[in-house]
Amino acid sequence: MSEFPRQIVDRIRREPPKDSCVLTGSLPVVSFGDLSGARVATLALNPSILEFLSRKGEWLLGPRRRLASLVSLGISDPHDLDDDAVSRVIEESNAYFEGPNWYRGWFGQLESLLVTSGLGSYLDGTACHLDLVQWTTDPVQGKVPSTAWKRLVAADRDFLGWQLRQKSLTTVLVNGMSCVDELRTVGVVQSWTEDRVPYATKSGPAELRLFQAEEHGVRFVGWNRPVAGPLPADGRDKLRTWLLTVTTGTTS
Q: Of the candidates 169, 168, 10, which has an alpha carbon nearest to the alpha carbon of residue 89?
């Protein structure tokens, strides 16, 4: 296992906290794409349950599978993961965007934002995706009891901190207000500076809250409305323009 950092190997073998609503049979997703070569990372709360299950609740197996799980590996206890199994889990996470099944419904808008702002791409390895919590939950994060969610965040805080200190990483895009708030709560970001930009929606004007910070040489930029969700086209355009301005000094 010398080819992989000890922190990643240990994280995959670590059991989830008790009573934390982790999807039974899943494994932690340490990254979507290879962090070791990425210069930019997007960051959200935790992996979607749709990385492992279909919308009907069936496990994605065989040609439908996106990531390795205890179910796909035929293992019931993470302590039984041998070196070969751990290597497979890491390799499949690193190669997530090289396969045909990456979750376009969620990552597609973020990929477009990365490319059009000139920051990088998941598809060429210059960008990857990380999560505050590496476990998938059942139910989805918004329905997890706050005490259980806090246990998950506390358990994964040090690993995320280690990830964000990797030498290749220069920029982190923080997708959504909940994640912006959590980074400050856990101490990854000490304080944010904030801008506000209006944008148009079908129901009338709305406002983007836009955040910046720098910690240990890494630039953090975030926004309040998740891109892969409720943010409409004009909001995405305004966000792209703002990112170009703050990261490159240009506006087009």
A: 10
**H helix and E strand count, the chain:** 7, 6
How big is the CA angle at 1 (ends 49 and 5), to the nearest 5 degrees? Answer: 70
Any idea what the CATH number is for the domain that residue 87 is in? 3.40.470.10
Is 1 domain-assigned? no
The model carries a pTM of 0.95
Q: How many domains does the chain have?
A: 1
Read off the amino acid at residue 27.
L
Which residues constitute the domain of residue 58? 6-248
CB 30 within 8 A of CB 90: yes
Tell which phi-psi region holds residue 21, choosing left (phi > 0), alpha (psi between -120 and 50) or beta.
Answer: left
- Summarize pLDDT for 28-86 with one digit per residue, the tens: 999 999 999 999 999 999 999 999 999 999 999 999 999 999 999 999 888 889 999 99
Name the nearest CA neighbour of 31 among 21, 49, 44, 18: 44
Query: Which region, left, alpha or beta, applies to residue 118 given φ > 0 means left and ψ of -120 to 50 means alpha?
Result: left
Residue 252 to residue 245: CA distance in whole angstroms = 8
